[in-house]
Every structure is written in structure tokens, then in C-alpha cells.
Specification:
binds uridine 5'-triphosphate; 7-stranded mixed sheet; globular; Carbamate kinase; 7 strands; 227 residues
Length: 227
């Protein structure tokens, strides 16, 4: 299978000292050993938020802030790349979809961060998955799927086991309307998933083994299915 995985920055490296990055690299290598093509898109996490917060205070505009965010996502991508076996990755981080597709075409693992201002790596992941005609898209986030509300804020939030892409778009639209909301996947990413008719799982990625199991169809997150 061709698999595109989104790994949130705080999921990959909650702190720099942890060996989560190594565990993620081992999972990616295991998927490659099983014959899968793998692309990983890495987020910026807390480090990106800190840089963005500090630069906003200093007067940077939103596009400049996005540029900082992109730089941190690429830094995290380099971190994951450095933990992967050198035979599996090229010397550079793809900076656009063509470069990522070329890496996959060569038989490499594509590891990348953000691309352009005005979006997040959730969207990069969905767009890349559409571009390279991925069989499966996995969002490894800090919650185990999509809920009716943010489960960290609302104890009555209900979990969805399965959603159509259209239902995902509706739920994310509602969640994003709520102030300070923290939707597990961006609205634009949800719309791309809907448009492309892709299969996606939104899972808890704090244990990287869950990603390996999800590829086998074993997960307790949310499965997004084409309409
Ligand atoms: P993330 O993908 O980590 O954003 O990119 P996020 O969703 O805000 O972070 P989490 O998932 O809640 O931890 C970090 C920042 O980098 C910029 C955006 O400013 C984003 O918030 N970015 C990222 C872009 O502008 N373009 C991209 O393609 C990717």
C-alpha cells in the first residue's frame, strides 16, 4: 500500500529528549520492510507555537509567522529523517509535492514539513495523499479520533468510530466555529479528503505502534470513508 502519515509535532517530539522520534522511525522502517511506500508529513508542535507567539509579540505579520511555522515543521522533518536508515531517505527534505512524489518514485521514504503559508501540515498531508494516489491516509494526533466536541474540554464529547468524508467536513466546520477550538484535522484537509474520495484514519499517535496497527486496520480512532 501507499501510505501517507501526518505526525503532529507534539506527537513526534513532545520534548526533544524523548525517544519517540526513534520509535516513529522504527515504525516507518517496519512499514517499508512490509512492502509499503511511505510518506510522513511532520507538524511543528509546541516549538512552532513558541516561535510564532514570540514573533507575533515582536510585530511579525501572519505570513511571516506561517514562514516560521513552516521552518519548524521542516526542522522536525529533519529530526525524523535523521533517525531513519540513510538508505531509505534522500539527502534533502521535499519542499513541494513534486519533490515528495519524486522521492516516492525513487523508492525513498518522503519525509517533509509544511509548504506554503496559510495552511497547516494537515492540509499538506491530504494534498500529498491525493497527489501520489495514496491508498491510506493516517492522521497521528494527540486524540484518538474525531469527537462531537474537544474531549479535553468537554466530558460529554462523543467519539465517532466511522464518518463519511462529508460528515467529517460538517463536524470540523462546527468544531472550528467554537472559540479556541482544537479540531483534530483542519477543515481544508477534510475538504480535500472529501474531494479525493480517500480513506483516512484519525488516531492517537502518542504510541507510534498504533500507526503500525492502524495500517493493518486495527485502531480505535475514527475511520473516514468515501461517500
Ligand atoms: P502545524 O501543521 O504543526 O500546525 O504547522 P498546527 O495545526 O497549528 O499545529 P498543531 O497540529 O495544533 O500542533 C505549524 C504552523 O506552520 C505554518 C502554520 O502557521 C502552522 O500553524 N504552516 C505549516 C504553514 O503556513 N504552511 C504549511 O504548509 C504548514
Amino acid at each position: 500500500m501507499r501510505i501517507v502519515v501526518s505526525v503532529g509535532g507534539s506527537v513526534l517530539a513532545p520534548t526533544l529528549g524523548e525517544n519517540r522520534v526513534e520509535e516513529y522511525a522504527a515504525v516507518v522502517e517496519g512499514l517499508v520492510a512490509d512492502g509499503h511506500d511511505v510518506a510522513a508529513v511532520v507538524g511543528g508542535g509546541g516549538v512552532a507555537r513558541e516561535y510564532i507567539g514570540a514573533a507575533r509579540e515582536l510585530g511579525a505579520n501572519e505570513i511571516e509567522l506561517d514562514g516560521l511555522g513552516i521552518a519548524v515543521t521542516r526542522l522536525n522533518a529533519r529530526l525524523l529523517k535523521s533517525a531513519l536508515s540513510p538508505e531509505l531517505v534522500g539527502p534533502t527534505i521535499p519542499e513541494n509535492y513534486d519533490e515528495a512524489a519524486e522521492a516516492l518514485h525513487r523508492g525513498d521514504v518522503a519525509v517533509m514539513g509544511g509548504i506554503v503559508p496559510g495552511q497547516t501540515t494537515d492540509t499538506v498531508t491530504a494534498a500529498l495523499a491525493e497527489y501520489v494516489e495514496a491508498d491510506l491516509l493516517i492522521y497521528a494526533t494527540s486524540v484518538n479520533g474525531v469527537y462531537t466536541a474537544d474531549p479535553n474540554e468537554d466530558p460529554d464529547a462523543e467519539h465517532f468510530t466511522e464518518l463519511t468524508a462529508g460528515e467529517l467536513v460538517e463536524i470540523i466546520s462546527t468544531l472550528e466555529m467554537a472559540a479556541g477550538s482544537n479540531a483534530p484535522v483542519d477543515l481544508l484537509a477534510a475538504k480535500l479528503i472529501q474531494r479525493a474520495g480517500m480513506h483516512a484514519y484519525v488516531i492517537d499517535g502518542t504510541d507510534p505502534q498504533r500507526v503500525a496497527r492502524a495500517v493493518e486496520g486495527d485502531h480505535d480512532g475514527t475511520a473516514v470513508v468515501p461517500e
